[in-house]
Amino acid sequence: MNFRKAWDDPGAAALQHDFFASVRVREAMLANIEPMPLTLDDLRRFAVANSLFPTTTLRRALHKFGFVQADPIRAPARAQDLILRHRVKGYRAGDLERRYSQRHSQLGIEEDFFINYGFVTRELQALMHPRSNSAVTAQSRLWWPAGRRKRAELLLAFVRERGVVHPREVDLHFAHGSVENYWGGSSNATTRLLDAMHYQGLLRIVRRQAGIRIYAAREHQSLPFDKAERHRRIDALVDIAVRIYAPLPAKCLSLLVRRLRYATPQWQGEIAKALKRAQERLAHARVEGVDWYWPGDKNPLRSKSPQGVRLLAPFDPVVWDRWRFELLWGWIYRFEAYTPVAKRQRGYYALPLLWRDRVIGWGNLTVKSGGLQAEFGFAGQRPVDGAFEQELAAELDRVRVFLGLKS
User: Fold this and answer.
1) What is the CA radius of gyration of the chain?
2) Of the candidates 53, 69, 66, 96, the residue with the CA atom closest to the CA atom of residue 402
3) In the 3-class helix/strand/coil scheme, how is 347-399 assigned residue by residue?
4) CB atoms within 10 A of CB 23
5) Burial tier of 261 (Cβ tally within 10 Å: 0-12, 13-18, 19+)
6) Phi first, then psi: what are they for 208, rounded to 5°?
7) Do 333 and 320 contact (CB within 8 A), yes or no?
8) pTM for the full model?
């Protein structure tokens, strides 16, 4: 057999790429340096391929991530559903909430705060708890006064007695009144206290009823953590976050790690050292003057270019960080749901539009009269090849199935 002829065959291009990538990785390991050269094109492919893994079951997808961000806005579906539809085979809008609410759910997840609010695996949750005796992070980082701690103890005893409670039941029993909330309006004191107790890990959310949280008591094992155990837990949390959002430029890695102060307020003083350990532990390389980080067992050089069109949630891991977005795709994307209408440039809930390994624009989807309406904008020129139009139509068909709409 003529091996030179076979090797020069254009059909062997992918094999050659993988071969030389593996050689560079092996040489780098022997020399204790990162594989080079690494380009922004490599990082773009890696950013997409690392997150958009082959579709699997809901449980496996949740446990592969460890955390999925949640958001109550439905346009045309909630963020958690828009994220999971790309990773779960046959996923339909609302599947996560329906499965979570089942009495004997096998998903193994809880609602909780990680770097943002969302759904976390119980293994991840165990790394964060028990949290310190502080209020919900967005409200206050101050320790509870004695009077509030007493009310919380009474409320917890009431929940344990009832088993599962609606906030209305608690309010009728205790009549806590109203307090000023973080946003400057009036909020029910019972809801505030329930939220804070959930944040601390004293309560869990069993399900939601018309969007309202239904609670039950929860126990977290309290152990005396030594310095080594604290470091182990914090480093594990950092690694989970990095695995979800890699690759990360240095600025974004710093911001991401610092957000763990919400996950572990009891260890806020450890965050800076955890960041330094992460920078030393993670694989990294400088690309066009920017230091990038990713898990050591991942190889950006071996990521394959994805195909097709995808409409992503604004909080999808592929596009979650706006600074990283600009570095990878060269234009500015902003989430504008809370921007005054007159100042919006992309739309109320613009979904980033991914074409192969490039985010090239955005789409605004609405459901009217039982049908899906779509409007698109582009950062540059709209692709003119027929393949794009065909793939965009296929993606809209997938959205219709996801939403349960007629074709």
Assistant:
1) 24
2) 96
3) CCCCEEEEECCEEEEEEEEEEECCEEEEEEEECCCCCCCHHHHHHHHHHHHHH
4) 11
5) middle
6) -125, 145
7) no
8) 0.86
The residue among 71, 72, 51, 70 whose CA lies nearest residue 61 is 51
Distance CA(274)–CA(234), nearest Å, equals 7
Characterize the bridge pairing of strands 358-368 and 67-69: unpaired
Q: What is the DSSP string of 127-148?
A: HH-SPPSB--TTT--SBPPHHH
CA dihedral 148→154→158→159, nearest 10 degrees, is 40
Domain ranges of the chain: 66-85+107-217, 302-403
Task: State pLDDT tens for residues 135-192.
Answer: 555 445 556 778 888 888 999 999 999 999 999 998 888 876 666 554 445 557 888 8
300, 314, 354 from 41: Cα distances, Å: 10, 22, 15
Q: How far is CA 68 from the centre of its chain?
A: 4
Nearest partner of 188 among 165, 171, 211, judged by Cα: 171
For β-strands 67-69 and 109-113, DSSP reports them as unpaired
Identify the three-state secondary structure at position 152: helix
Query: Distance (Å, rounded) from C-alpha 304 to C-alpha 324?
Result: 20
**Confidence class for position 224, pLDDT limits 50, 70, 90:** low
Six-digit token string for 46: 């890696």
CA distances in angstroms from 215 to 74, 136, 160, listed in the order given: 23, 16, 10
234 close to 115: Cβ distance less than 8 angstroms: no
- For the chain, helix (H) and strand (E) counts, in that order, are 16, 15
3-state helix, strand, coil in the chain (%, to 5): 45, 20, 35
- The type of residue at 175 is A
d(CA 298, CA 247): 10
H-helix segments, 32-119 = 40-51, 58-65, 79-84, 95-101
Please state whether the peptide bond connecting residue 37 to the residue before it is cis, i.e. omega within 30 degrees of 0: yes
Q: What is the pLDDT of residues 233-250, one digit of tens each?
A: 999 999 999 999 999 999
Residue type, 295: P
The verdict on whether omega for the bond into residue 295 sits within 30 degrees of 0, i.e. cis, is no
